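2024-03-11 09:14:02 INFO worker-7 job=invfold-0412 stage=load source=structure_tokens
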């Protein structure tokens, strides 16, 4: 969840999340979204904005970003094609080892 919030702040525009996890951290029927490890978001209307969003997810340590194969989706640097992603971007496998706990 921390990575998603960081990516959202860096992106600086509205981002519609279409799948993450439930309040109890489960993600049934999805197996790839427990504990906020992955997030699905609707595509932006422009390549430029979508690439900025992808870059923000990468900057905040999401290591697998899946996209569809239609339109300009294949041009998105740092992404890989995965079936079932024509309607949304999947940012997943958040690298929890990058989390820093700061005591105030």
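2024-03-11 09:14:09 INFO worker-7 stage=emit residues=104
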């Amino acid at each position: 969840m921390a990575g998603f919030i960081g990516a959202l702040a860096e992106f600086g525009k509205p981002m519609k999340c279409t799948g993450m996890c439930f309040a109890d951290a489960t993600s049934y029927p999805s197996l790839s979204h427990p504990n906020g490890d992955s997030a699905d978001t609707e595509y932006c209307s422009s390549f430029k904005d979508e690439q900025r969003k992808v870059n923000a997810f990468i900057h905040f340590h999401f290591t697998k970003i899946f996209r569809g194969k239609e339109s300009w989706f294949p041009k998105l640097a740092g992404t890989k094609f995965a079936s079932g992603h024509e309607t949304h971007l999947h940012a997943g496998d958040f690298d929890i080892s990058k989390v820093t706990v700061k005591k105030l």
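2024-03-11 09:14:09 INFO worker-7 stage=report msg="The helical segments are 2-11, 47-59."
2024-03-11 09:14:10 INFO worker-7 job finished
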